[in-house]
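Catalogue entry: protein
Contents: sequence, fold tokens
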Amino acid sequence: MNILIVDDDQELQNQLCKSLKNQHYRVETAVDGKEALDRIWGDTYDLILLDIMMPNMDGFAVLREMRKTRINIPVLMLTARGDLDDRVQGLDLGADDYLAKPFSMAELLARIRAMLRRGGERSPLLTSGEISLDTVSRTVNKKGESLKLTSKEFSILEFLLYNKGRAVSRFNLAEHVWGDNFDPFSMSNFIDVHMKNLRSKIKTHDKSIIRTIRGVGFIIDD
């Protein structure tokens, strides 16, 4: 599960990252509304923790833009504000839950688990042809037989399947799989090596479901 934390409080952001990673969530961060929207439009998230009071663009504006463009990712609003009016405004704009600071990490984690369960209408299975990937059990099957993928191969396939029918750039793919540790100058061949191995494992009828778009990146389509 991929979670985006949007908060300009660096200390709190670090605490949230540590706690969520300990629970085996994948975590990305943004420090203001503009950066948050850039990430939301460029990546796929299962849940967003969104602060209200931020520079450049506040959480209400971010939420308004998301819902206006029909991005229905579950949003849990985190804020120092405890006023009923703020809570009502957030829920009216499309927030799924609301938690006022300060809060206990145990309560936050419980709310996250509940929200992810509620979001379970979306099938955990991502498919293309004879390949199916289960985002919950983190397993991949080809014609019903289990495939052994490395964690990086799984992340590549999962990201491409989440974006099925849409071209994914090499940079966005690398950023998703390796995060801030990716160096485009020294690690560019990492993508090609992992992609070659992944294609070999998921190939059916001498054909890979992953197509290269020269000068752009990669795409999975049916």
Observations:
- The chain has two domains: 2-121, 125-220.
- The chain has eight helices and twelve strands.
- The chain has a mean pLDDT of 85.
- The first strand starts at residue 2 and ends at 6.
